[in-house]
Specification:
Helix content is 0%, strand content 48%. The protein has 124 residues and is an all-beta fold. It is globular.
Length: 124
């Protein structure tokens, strides 16, 4: 599986962005997909995750109610809709797949497939 995140950019506080994670080779053997982010001088942190069937969804407390994760398996794409963006959302955003429930959904080490990130900058 090769993943590619896109849709990042620069927005003002309160703005919106939609990130997309496309994958080649993603099949129903994919157990779930997660979005993580890493700000300068900080550790990578969990943002959101979704199961293969687009039913089970998980969010970090910091984005709950503002971000929404979804997937379109026909298009091989997972989306992260980001609303009411704040300066503290500034980070490089990564998507990742996992093939089995090998660990907590919020832990980066539970995911075996990663792509290059996309930069999101929220600033006035």
């Amino acid at each position: 599986v090769q993943l590619q995140a896109s849709g990042g950019g620069s927005v003002q506080p309160g703005g919106t962005l939609r990130l997309a994670c496309t994958a080649s080779g993603r099949t129903s053997s994919t157990y779930g997909t997660g979005w993580f982010r890493q700000a300068p001088r900080k550790e990578r942190e969990f943002v959101a995750a979704v199961g293969w069937r687009d039913v089970s969804k998980y969010y970090a407390a910091s984005v709950q109610g503002r971000f929404s994760i979804s997937r379109d398996n026909a298009k091989g794409t997972v989306y992260l809709q980001m609303n009411s963006l704040k300066p503290e959302d500034t980070a490089v955003y990564y998507c990742a797949d996992r093939r089995a429930p090998t660990g907590p959904v919020r832990v980066p080490g539970s995911y075996g497939f990663w792509g290059p990130g996309t930069l999101v900058t929220v600033s006035s």
